[in-house]
Write a structure and sequence with these properties.
The protein is mainly α. Helix content is 85%, strand content 0%.
Length: 330
């Protein structure tokens, strides 16, 4: 029964608070609409991308010709379904990036927007000319995962009443976001430069036919998917912990913030380490573009799973403390 109550309290973060302002309620509805459309498009586009993963030159000529026709059609459908995701679902990303650039400030929206652009526009061009790899599934997947993390963070933050615990977590979020923004900006900048250099080396000195796959693979890996989720996923887990455990003492809040800081660093620098490991392999042509997209998905899932693990550990620690207190009193 206790686990059921804890589960229901955790799920209550998705119910809009009664005292929620009209502005916050409007923001929440729009974010949910963008999130739903992104997930719907992601499921469809990933299904349409499947024929492209089946293609290989060892197929019979008739089968290869038929598959190429199917891929051509699926790519156009995927493009049409990805455009609303890029323009509408990712609109807060574009708006945030443009406003911050106008203010000469760098936030996570800037490298995220750059990552979406370097994956979407080459895919759109490949679809238009009818040749080359497309990565619409990676684009919509990234947007869907990012919006999910941000929506969870928003719901958890609105579900917790104002107090010292909530203020401490928000202060941590602000400081961690500054660090994550700086790391993501330099990461994406360096990755894009390395991708262009590696593509040029393959084009002029090694094998021009393999230059584009290398370039696209490194462009896909430059998208800071996991890094963009590092802070929102951890902060949402911390807020959800407050929602379930209720008011905490100063020492418990400090321990929660310390745990959130540790998990955020694991997610942020673990993502960087993973990309640093994959980058030289992609540069020498050992990582196909679809493998790069898959690695992006895996790293994002690992970040989300690590934040969920922190949340579960906090609940178990609370249960152990309550049990010991009950034994002592008994």
């Amino acid at each position: 029964m206790k686990l059921y109550i804890a589960f229901m309290r955790a799920m209550s973060i998705f119910s809009p608070p009664k005292n929620l302002s009209d502005t916050d309620r409007h923001q929440r509805r729009h974010m949910l609409a963008r999130l739903g459309l992104a997930w719907l498009a992601m499921m469809q586009v990933m299904m349409f991308a499947f024929p492209g993963y089946l293609r290989h030159e060892g197929m019979a000529p008739d089968n290869l010709e038929l598959l190429d026709q199917a891929i051509f059609l699926m790519n156009w459908i995927s493009l049409l379904m990805t455009v609303p995701v890029v323009l509408y679902c990712a609109q807060p990303v574009w708006a945030g990036a443009l406003s911050r650039l106008a203010e000469k400030h760098i936030t996570m929206d800037v490298p995220v927007a750059l990552g979406i652009a370097v994956a979407f526009f080459p895919s759109a061009y490949a679809t238009w000319v009818g040749r080359g790899e497309v990565y619409f599934d990676s684009v919509v997947m990234f947007v869907a995962f990012l919006l999910t993390a941000r929506y969870l963070e928003l719901c958890a933050r609105q579900a917790v009443e104002t107090g010292e615990g909530n203020a401490a977590i928000e202060a941590f979020r602000a400081s961690a976001s500054v660090q994550a923004n700086r790391v993501a900006f330099w990461f994406v900048t360096i990755q894009v430069v390395l991708a262009i250099v590696a593509g040029a080396v393959w084009w002029f000195f090694i094998d021009p036919d393999h230059a584009v796959p290398v370039l696209v693979a490194m462009f896909v890996m430059s998208c800071p998917c996991a890094m963009a989720m590092a802070v929102p996923s951890t902060v949402s887990a911390a807020h959800a912990t407050l929602a379930v455990r209720g008011p905490l003492s100063d020492s418990e809040v400090a321990a929660l913030v310390s745990d959130a800081r540790r998990v955020t660093r694991q997610n942020l620098y673990g993502s960087v380490a993973w990309h640093l490991l994959m980058t030289p392999l992609a540069a020498i042509g050992l990582v196909a573009p679809w493998v790069a997209a898959l690695s992006m998905l895996v790293s994002s899932l690992v970040v989300a799973g690590n934040a969920w693990r922190m949340y579960r550990q906090q609940l178990r620690a609370s249960d152990v403390a309550e049990y010991r207190a009950a034994v002592t009193q008994g």
